[in-house]
Amino acid sequence: MKKAILALADGTVFHGRALGYEGDTVGEVVFNTAMTGYQEILTDPSYKGQIVTMTCPHIGNYGVTGEDVESRRAWAEGFVVTEACLEPSNWRSQRMLDAYLREAGIVGIQGIDTRVLTRHLRDQGSQMGVISQLDLDPGRTIERARAAPGILGRDLVKEVTCPEPYAWTEGSGDWPPDGRLRHDRNRPEARERRSFHVVVYDFGVKQNILRRLVDVGCRVTVVPASTAPAAVEALNPDGIFLSNGPGDPEGVPYASASARHFIGKRPMMGICLGHQMLGLASGLRTYKLKFGHHGANHPVMDLRTRKVEITSQNHNFAVEAPADAAAATTGPSTVETGMGRWQISHVSLNDRSVEGLVALDHPVFSVQYHPEASPGPHDAAYLFDEFVHLMEHHHA
Predict the structure, then answer these.
(1) Any catalytic annotation for residue 56?
(2) Which of 13, 80, 259, 318 is most buried when burial is the number of CB atoms within 10 A of its CB?
(3) Which of 218, 250, 272, 315 is catalytic?
(4) What does pTM read for this prediction?
(5) Block means of pLDDT (10 residues each) for the chain, length 396 residues?
(6) Rounded to an integer, what distance in angstroms lies between the CA atom of residue 80 and that of residue 32?
(7) Computed from CA positions of residues 83, 86, 87, 88, in that sequence, does the dihedral angle turn out positive or negative?
(8) Are 199 and 258 in contact (CB under 8 A)?
């Protein structure tokens, strides 16, 4: 098979075999600890600007299907695996991973020890890298990685957001297709609720988030990230949803300004980048994590109940808590800002980073992780019901 190399900005080089689209690619190299969900990961707009390394050694074993995409296209800059399966076995499979990557224009590399790469990124931090199938000279490729712009301060949201508003009506449906098993979110009482109109700011929204909102009875309108608050108010929404998305939240000041505008005016929920936008809007700050949280097995504690949820995560930045609040371990801590009182409701059990915020003076909350999963566990799916309850209470 054709050779390929992965070169990191710190001078580390991995030699392997070509995978996917023939070419070169540049991005920040991160690792994802999920064992499944590679197709959802590739099509998650939050991975714009990143080369994704899968820690699970065998990827592609259940193939690729059109049902599992999370957006209109694949967004990851590159893909790194130990071994890409050549003979997928799944009744839903439509083609091999390698063929999908070629069609999507994603340059990849396989045949390297992703355990070594993951340990290196964990110890040295995520960094810019180049996958090259065309130029195999280590020196030149390292220099390209060093010269590449990082993600700090960059507005990657404008590259993934929708070009114009649209309505979303598709729910999750029954699974399996014959309906023998139904998710709790499809129970009759959920479908018979009052329908609330939710406007979703698209910072790079995953389709499964939109499906979950429909599942709990919402009428969904998606708008571009730069949509002015006045244009959103003209739609007369019952609630505002701030979606996930890629990159540095401080590189998207118009998004945090929109979030600040709606605090106290409409019920709001944020996920991932939307959580960080609410953090900035509330007066808190954000910072870049050493190697980010990417995977479907991250433990998070709800400090209000001491309940632990296993969550799906994908972010390189986090909301910074004041020192006294970050040190709290026995329960939720309260932070006073210029936008009222905010409660740190959830924390990561891996590094104690802030995973949830609740406004005590306004109908607003957010989480850093992905309650819609896809891939990942459904421990936190109830949060979409919580958003509906917030709108019900606000409009009662």
Answers:
(1) no
(2) 80
(3) 272
(4) 0.93
(5) 96 98 98 96 98 96 94 97 95 96 98 97 97 97 97 96 97 59 45 82 97 96 98 98 98 97 97 98 96 96 94 96 64 88 95 96 97 90 96 86
(6) 10
(7) positive
(8) no
Peptide bond into 299 cis (omega under 30): no
Percent of the chain that is helix, strand, coil (3-state, to 5)? 25, 35, 40
Beta-strand runs (E) in the chain: 3-8, 13-20, 24-32, 50-54, 58-59, 78-80, 83-84, 107-110, 127-132, 166-168, 196-202, 218-224, 239-242, 268-271, 285-302, 307-320, 333-337, 340-348, 354-359, 364-367
372 counts as catalytic = yes
| pLDDT for residue 142 | 98
Catalytic residue, chosen from 120, 293, 294, 370, is 370
Tell me, yes or no, if 218 is annotated catalytic: no
Q: What angle do CA 335, 198, 178 make, to 5 degrees?
A: 115
**How many CB atoms neighbour CB 362 within 10 A?**
20
Catalytic-labelled residue, pool 28, 250, 309, 372: 372
For 368, which DSSP code?
S
- Of 106, 111, 79, 112, which Cα lies nearest the Cα of 12? 112
| Integer CA distances (angstroms), 233 to 109, 322, 393, in order | 47, 33, 20
Render pLDDT for 154-180 as a digit per residue (tens, 0 to 9).
Answer: 999 999 999 999 999 999 876 544 443
State the Cα–Cα distance between residues 34 and 313, nearest whole angstrom. Answer: 10
Strands 364-367 and 268-271: parallel
pLDDT of residue 179: 41
Q: How many residues does the chain have?
A: 396
